[in-house]
Amino acid sequence: MAPLSIAGFRLGLALLGAGLLFALAWAAQPAGAEEQNPVLARVNQHEITLADVYKQIESLPLGDQIDLRDQIDRFTNSLITEEVLFQSVLATDFEEEQELRARIKSEVVTFLIEKHVRGKIKVSNEDIRAYYAKNRDLVRGLHVNIRQIVMKRRAQCEAVRKRIKAPTDFAKLARAHSLDKTSAAKGGEVGLLMPVQGPNSLGFELELFSMSLGEMRIFQSREGCHLVQVTEIVDPPDPPFAQVRAYVRPILEREQEQALLEALIAAASGKVRVERVPPPAN
Questions:
Q1: What is the DSSP letter of 195?
Q2: Which of 5, 63, 170, 199 has its CA 20 to 30 A from that of 243?
Q3: Which of 45, 47, 67 has its CA nearest to residue 57?
Q4: Is the CB of residue 190 less than 8 Å from the CB of residue 146?
Q5: Residue 232 DSSP label
Q6: pTM passes above 0.70
Q7: β-strands 39-43, 46-49: how paired?
Q8: 267 within 8 A of 138, measured Cβ to Cβ
Q9: Is-contact 128 248, C-beta < 8 A?
Q10: How far apart are CA 172 and CA 164, in angstroms?
Q11: Which residues, 6 or more positions from 232, have their beta carbon under 8 angstroms from its beta carbon?
Q12: 195 vs 60, which has greater pLDDT?
C-alpha cells in the first residue's frame, strides 16, 4: 500500500459524506452492475469498493473531480486508514477512548430512535376520527363535578343518605363523618372529573357520567363506601375537526412512540447479554 501523507489522510477524512447523486445513480444500475464495482480492499470483514471511492470523489467540487478521478489508489488508502483506525477502537471496546465511546453511544442511540421510532410515527385523519369516536366525551371536554362522603361500610352510607333532606345537609354530614379528610374539609367537594380511569382509579369513575344532576349513588371501592352526588355537569358541544385533530394527534403520536420504542428495545435486547449485579450488602 502506497504511503499516505497527512494532507492526503485529512482530505480523505473530509470526504466522509457520501455523494448522494452518485449513490442514487449507482443504485439504479442494471443487474450485473456489481461486476463494475470491484472490491478494492478489505479491513477484517468490511469491504471497500470502487463505489465507496467514487462517493468521496462525487462530494468534491466539480472542477476537482476531473483531476482526482485518476487518483483511485490515493482515496482507497484514505478509506483503508479510516477503517483501520475505527476498527482498532472497536476491537478494544473503546478501552482507551471512553470519552469517544460516550459520544458515539449517544449518536447511535439518537440515530436509532430517530430512524426506528420518530421516523416511523404516522397518524392519519382516519386514526384521529377513530380515536374520537371511541373517546368522544373525553376529547370534547365532558366533566362532572361531584361531592362525596366516604364511610367504611355500605350500611353507614345508606344511613347517612337518609339524613340528607336539604342541600346543605350533605356538606354538614361530609365534614362530620367522611373518612376522606381532604374532601371532608370542603364539605365533600371533590371537583371536576373527566371520563377516564387511570392507574389509581377507584373503579367507578365512568359510572358517574350516567348520573343526572343532583342524583346520589353509593359506590364501593378499596377505600370503603362512597356516597356520591353530582353537583354539576359540563357537557360541551362537539368541537370542529381541526380542534379535535390538535388534541388527539399528540396522544396518538405518544402511543405510537411508546410502542415503537418498546419494539426497538426488545429487538436490541435479543442481540446482547445483560447481567444485573446486585449492590453490595452494607
A1: S
A2: 199
A3: 67
A4: yes
A5: E
A6: no
A7: antiparallel
A8: no
A9: yes
A10: 9
A11: 143, 144, 145, 192, 213
A12: 195
Written as one letter, the residue type at 110 is: T
- Strand, coil or helix: what is 139? helix
Q: Does the pLDDT value for residue 16 go beyond 60?
A: no
Backbone torsions φ then ψ of 124, nearest 5 degrees: -95, 165
Pairs from 105-110 (Cβ < 8 Å, separation ≥ 24): none
- As a dihedral over the C-alpha atoms of residue 86, residue 90, residue 94, residue 97, rounded to 10 degrees, the angle is 0
d(CA 170, CA 187): 7
Cα–Cα dist 155/153, whole Å: 5
Report phi then psi at 10, rounded to 5.
Answer: -65, -35
Distance CA 195, CA 234 (A): 12
SS3 content of the chain, % helix, strand, coil (to 5): 55, 15, 30
Angle of helix 125-134 relative to helix 241-269, nearest 10 degrees, comes to 100
What's the rounded Cα separation, in Å, for the pair 122 and 252? Answer: 9
| DSSP one-letter code for 37 | S
Q: Are 178 and 148 in contact (CB under 8 A)?
A: yes
Alpha carbon distance 230, 250 (integer Å): 31
Are the beta carbons of 142 and 134 closer than 8 angstroms? no
Count of other CB atoms within 10 angstroms of residue 66: 9
User: Which DSSP letter does residue 8 get?
Assistant: H
Are 58 and 21 in contact by the 8 Å Cβ rule? The answer is: yes
Query: What gap in Å lies between CA 108 and CA 212, rounded to an integer?
Result: 56
Provide the CB-side half-sphere exposure for 210 (13 A, CA): 5
End-to-end CA distance of the chain: 59
Contact (Cβ atoms closer than 8 angstroms) between residue 164 and residue 170: yes
Strands 143-151 and 46-49, sheet pairing: unpaired
Tens digits of residue pLDDT in 146-173? 999 999 999 999 999 999 999 899 999 9
Q: Which residues contact 169 (CB under 8 A, 6 or more apart)?
A: 163
